[in-house]
From TrEMBL:
InterPro entries: Arg_MeTrfase, MeTrfase_PRMT7, PRMT_dom, SAM-dependent_MTases_sf. Keywords: Chromatin regulator, Cytoplasm, Differentiation, Methyltransferase, Nucleus, Repeat, S-adenosyl-L-methionine, Transcription, Transcription regulation, Transferase. Arginine methyltransferase that can both catalyze the formation of omega-N monomethylarginine (MMA) and symmetrical dimethylarginine (sDMA), with a preference for the formation of MMA. Specifically mediates the symmetrical dimethylation of arginine residues in the small nuclear ribonucleoproteins Sm D1 (SNRPD1) and Sm D3 (SNRPD3); such methylation being required for the assembly and biogenesis of snRNP core particles. Specifically mediates the symmetric dimethylation of histone H4 'Arg-3' to form H4R3me2s. One of its GO terms (molecular function) is histone methyltransferase activity. One of its GO terms (cellular component) is cytoplasm. It catalyses: L-arginyl-[protein] + S-adenosyl-L-methionine = N(omega)-methyl-L-arginyl-[protein] + S-adenosyl-L-homocysteine + H(+). It is an enzyme of class 2 (transferase). SUPFAM superfamilies: S-adenosyl-L-methionine-dependent methyltransferases. It comes from the Eukaryota. This is Protein arginine N-methyltransferase 7.
Length: 687
């Protein structure tokens, strides 16, 4: 079997599929997997263990043998818990081969090989009976197949099948039940991730307003879940319009139906406002009594209880199809529709009629189709990108810079994916605006710009003078932003594209941004360090094999590579000053030789150096810059504010240094190399 791994090529701006060799063995998947994060989730582990012990005792009290089915065993953790709790036998199913192999080793190392059988299959392929994978059906069903949306990893069809074929009727299930909660909110910030707000431009001839086309206004968006660390959303960024409401629950000890369905609740707003967003999370009860509860509720729900940090389960943001003005105390019906793998929401006003119950009244108009983007914008712009385009401060910087460089006779070429810059340039007076690659025709139509802005659908290297009506480009602009970019410096594709169109540029061309710079800072993470830190012993079980496996995978190719994380969701403290490490001059072409730098940065504060954060800043024109990372210099305690629309690059150090005393200042030395052939940045740090 061949393995292909997708990678963005920053020199061509496209996605490429690389074939991996025999020795690959899913290193990228393992290195980036959430297994370490789950093993660090103490609250989850403790509660699973309690639930498993209770289930084994209940079965034993009935005088039965405890036969466990653990679907998706991963490291084998939950089966080892069951075996320790006195289970007679465990069938541990794991579909992902490298994990199944690891589970065999871990189970052996912990001395459970005679009690736990690892089966490397998808649960729906497992056979029961003499000569089958399982001797008999199990009477305890243990799983952890949930994602932030609960059902997104296929828990429902897996349970449905297991109840039909793999477990006994009346089996004990750990968890016993899951419950999904919702809260209706108004939030300009979150709404800006789905809707494009009108953009105001002060032009010479008065204010121009760029309006989103009606297709976009009425578009339901995309069905993919928006999962975020809601605990990092300050309460000032949203207004709760309803109490927390139970939307639906699933009893895992009974047959489960995965077929599409809907759930409906009545709610009364506690406040008048604009209903835009449904925030949602779930909890699981590990036992039938509900005494062992593991919850994803955000900070404002149980203000007194300690929050467990975790990244493998967060909270969901659902966007209502349209914004709905609601009044305090009026009756509303909130509907959750779901298919096998995803959930979406709908809000209606309840009409009060005699004779008919609200339920019957509205049964007919339940919207069962999942949201499908009709305007194309939601396919081109992901949620952070919507947020970025709606960021008025950022737009103002671009307008200010464009105003400085544009003249009435400017011939302007814009290279960026799904950018509004060509429209801004046109409003600010450029005679002719040409625009590359991805854009939304409907947007131009809605703003009557079809004959003002020309879209050139060729790759930059294929640009011909005829595309430009034999004119030379006097202003070349870019945000830059490209949908294939994963790490901050991948947007340097702008530089490669600029190099490719060199022959079409006027001798006195202005390039906006004129340059970019790469910045770096050493940080201590509040929590994010956990996802890459070894676990060792988890609830008394030795899982070091897993740690070693992750380390191997990190070293396989990922070594000297950074990973993208949106740091507004992952608080950290700066331990060094931010430092500009490399600059990229867009007024010139990409050089043949590599760009490298070395140096050292002093640690200013007490703390653990978990890694370095890197980001790009774009220098649009003299004195006008935008940052995709740090928004301002950290305060005296080292608290940082990050650009909320961008992912920054995080390079985790292989060993953490803890600087307790600063009498003798510690420094981190770095070597950073931008390979102009590949567009990638390699780095090395020494503590
Ligand atoms: N039980 C472990 C790991 C949970 S992660 C723990 O709690 O720490 C979920 C695992 O289930 C993944 O390894 C995934 O590969 C596996 N998986 C998901 N659905 C499955 C299915 N239907 N059959 C077998 N394995 C499955």
């Amino acid at each position: 079997m061949k393995t292909f791994c997708g990678r963005a090529n920053p020199t061509t701006g496209s996605m490429e599929w690389l074939e991996e060799g025999e020795d690959y063995d899913y290193h990228q998947e393992i290195a980036r997997s959430r297994y370490a994060d789950m093993l660090h989730d103490k609250d989850r582990n403790v509660k699973y263990y309690q639930g498993i012990r209770a289930a084994v005792s209940r079965v034993k009290e009935r005088g039965e043998k405890a036969i466990v089915l653990d679907i998706g065993t991963g490291t084998g953790l939950l089966s080892m818990m069951a075996a320790s709790a006195g289970a007679d036998f465990c069938y541990a199913i794991e579909v992902f081969k490298p994990m199944a192999n690891a589970a065999v080793k871990i189970v052996e190392k912990n001395g459970f090989s005679d009690k736990i059988k690892i089966i490397n299959k998808h649960s729906t392929e497992v056979t029961v009976g003499p000569g089958g994978d399982m001797q008999c059906r199990a009477n305890i069903l243990v799983t952890e197949l949930f994602d932030t949306e609960l059902i997104g990893e296929g828990a429902l069809p897996t349970y449905e099948h297991a109840h039909k074929y793999l477990v006994q009727e009346g089996c004990e299930a750990v968890p016993h039940r899951a419950t999904v909660y919702v809260q209706l909110v108004e939030s300009k910030r979150m709404w800006s991730w789905k809707k494009l707000f009108p953009v105001r431009v002060e032009a010479e001839d008065g204010e121009k307003i760029l309006v989103p086309p009606s297709e976009m206004e009425n578009c339901p968006g995309v069905p993919s879940v928006c999962d975020i660390q809601l605990n990092q959303m300050p309460s000032s960024d949203f207004t709760t319009l309803s109490d927390v409401v139970t939307m639906f629950s699933v009893d895992f000890s009974k047959p489960v139906q995965s077929a599409s369905t809907y759930y409906r609740v009545q709610l009364e707003p506690v406040k008048s406002g604009k209903a835009q967003i449904v925030l949602s999370w779930w909890d699981i009860d590990m036992d039938p009594s509900g005494m062992i509860n593991c919850t994803m509720a955000p900070y404002w729900v149980n203000p007194t209880s300690a929050l467990q940090w975790r990244d493998h389960w967060m909270q969901c943001v659902y966007f209502l199809p349209n914004e709905e003005p609601v009044l305090q105390g009026e009756k509303l019906l909130l509907t959750a529709c779901r298919d096998e793998y995803s959930v979406w929401y709908n809000l209606q006003k309840a009409r009060e009629e005699e004779n008919k119950s609200a339920e019957e009244e509205h049964k007919a108009d339940v919207h069962v189709e999942s949201p499908v983007c009709r305007c194309h914008a939601h396919l081109l712009w992901n949620r952070p990108r919507f947020g970025e385009l709606n960021d008025q401060n950022r737009t103002r910087q671009y307008i200010k810079a464009l105003r400085k460089v544009l003249k009435t006779d400017s011939v302007c070429l814009c290279i960026s994916d799904g950018s509004l810059l060509p429209v801004l340039a046109h409003y600010l007076g450029a005679k002719q605006v040409q625009y590359f690659v991805l854009f939304l025709h409907c947007f131009f139509k809605a703003n009557h710009l079809e004959d003002k802005i020309k879209i050139i659908e060729v790759r930059p290297e294929l640009l011909k003078p005829s595309h430009l009506e034999d004119k030379k480009i006097s202003v070349l602009v870019g945000e830059p932003f490209f949908t294939t970019s994963l790490l901050p410096w991948h947007n340097l594709y702008f530089w490669y594209a600029r190099t490719a169109v060199s022959t079409h540029l006027a001798s006195d061309v202005t390039v906006l941004p004129q340059s970019a710079s790469l910045h770096m800072m050493v940080v201590e993470f509040q929590d994010l360090w956990r996802i890459r830190s070894p676990c060792g012993i988890c609830e008394g079980f030795d899982v070091q094999t897993m740690d070693d496996m992750i380390k191997d995978s990190l070293n396989f190719r990922e070594s000297k590579e950074a990973e993208p994380h949106p740091l507004w969701e992952y608080p950290c403290k700066s331990l060094s000053d931010p430092l500009e490490v490399l600059t990229f001059d867009f007024t010139r072409t990409v050089p043949q030789h590599c760009l490298s730098t070395e140096g050292s940065v002093n640690l200013l504060r007490k703390g653990k150096s978990h890694g370095a954060v890197l980001w790009m800043e774009y220098h649009l024109a003299a004195d006008i810059s935008v940052s995709t990372g740090l928004m301002q210099i950290p305060d005296e305690k080292g608290n940082c504010e990050w650009n909320p629309h961008c992912k920054q690059a995080v390079y985790f150090f292989s060993s953490v240094i803890e600087s307790e005393i600063l009498s003798d200042p510690t420094a981190v030395t770095y070597a950073i190399n931008f390979d102009t052939k590949t567009g990638e940045i390699a780095m090395d740090f020494k503590l």
